[in-house]
Amino acid sequence: MNNDHVRRPAARVGLSSASMSAPVRNHAGFIWSVADLLRGDYKRSEYGKVILPLTVLRRLDGVLAPTKQRVLDRHRQLRGRLSNVGPVLTGITGVQFWNTSELDLRRVLDDPPA
User: Fold this and answer.
1) What residue spans define the domains of the chain?
2) In 3D, which of 51, 27, 57 has the Cα closest to residue 39?
């Protein structure tokens, strides 16, 4: 699919291509290449409804990754013994949220389609 007509966001976010570092340009290029792929499956008005939630989920997943196993272990220890595990788990994560699911985005992606 030729997407030469797709306008890139540099002007929309107030950055010129010249002012962005090479790694930022590489990341931006990668993100927009993924967006270009999704455009084939989603209407232009719909893909923002997919990209934004997945971006937020990926960010949350990344923030929790370093403490994921410790949270899972502690949650198993406390299950049924403590009604409010929130303060304990936020103490582990260092942020005001946690995830007690065994799944993360990598495991979801590795799961073969049914």
Assistant:
1) 17-110
2) 51
